[in-house]
Amino acid sequence: MDRVKDKVAIVTGAALGLGRGEAILLGKEGAKVAVVDINDEAGKETVEIIRNAGGEAEYWHLNVANEAECKTVIDAVVEKWGKLDILVNNAGIVGEDVPTDKTTEENWDKVFAVNVKSTFFMTKHSIPHMRNNGKGAIVNTSSICGLVGDGELSSYHATKGAILQMTKQDAVQYAPEHIRVNCVCPGSIMTPLMHDRLKVDPQYFEKDLQRYPLGYFGEPEDVAYGVLFLASDEGRFVTGAALPIDGGYTAQ
Length: 252
Ligand SMILES: NC(=O)c1ccc[n+]([C@@H]2O[C@H](COP(=O)([O-])OP(=O)(O)OC[C@H]3O[C@@H](n4cnc5c(N)ncnc54)[C@H](O)[C@@H]3O)[C@@H](O)[C@H]2O)c1
Known about the structure:
There is one protein chain. The protein is α/β, with parallel strands linked by helices. The chain has a single domain, classed as NAD(P)-binding Rossmann-like Domain (Rossmann fold). 47% of the residues lie in helices and 15% in strands. It is built from eight helices and seven strands; from the N terminus they run βαβαβαβαβαβαααβ. Strands 3-2-1-4-5-6-7 form a seven-stranded parallel sheet, with helices on both faces. α1 packs across α8, α3 packs parallel to α4 and α4 runs parallel beside α5. The N and C termini lie far apart (35 Å). The site of nicotinamide-adenine-dinucleotide (NAD) has 28 residues, from α1 and α6. The site of nicotinamide-adenine-dinucleotide has 28 residues, from α1 and α6.
């Protein structure tokens, strides 16, 4: 129950999907959770779920692709709870599913803004607070798409590779200040993002499942437990790691 007791955590994109699962688990394990998202209704619902389970949480509207908004919200969280221990950079979009030669500059820029610039902005403005705190833990969200290529989602793959390298860079950079930076690399997890893809391409799932040695897709909770470990003091000797949570997808 108390794996992150009294820690203050921000989870981006926590209204739905993986972020919601991560926020709920951090709340259940004793953290005060700042749920941030652009989907206000679902974000407030996440807060209610955490509170109904006896946890502490608050919702802030935040477009993570906007640097000024990121700073304002991070500062507001610290103003409310006095410190910042954990940042989970989860918000992300897949963009158009096209190969590189069909990708528009607009799509490329949009996916990079929400996935990569957000990780940069949130990290940049969290570091001073973690420095004041004497330590901190940042968990970024890469993907199996950051580890290997495949025949889809060109710009998305590029963003997830960038996040992986940003994780290693910041891990080394901030280790002397006891700020750990790791990332999770999920495989297919059944979230709204995946349900949207199922509507567009029902055969996708059947084909995709064959690539998973365990023979099933993950649930948000599977990723949340990885995030919890990396964010908690249990992970005190882990930094710069990229943790696949992928049913064996990248082990082949
Ligand atoms: N679902 C998977 O199979 C899978 C696999 C690997 C990695 N991921 C990564 O996990 C993360 C979450 O994915 P998901 O499947 O839960 O997606 P999702 O679409 O279910 O949820 C994403 C959340 O991010 C929010 N969001 C989107 N743009 C935002 C913005 N500009 N500012 C703030 N919030 C914003 C959405 O409102 C939503 O609540 C993403 O980074 C995704 O790339 C997902």
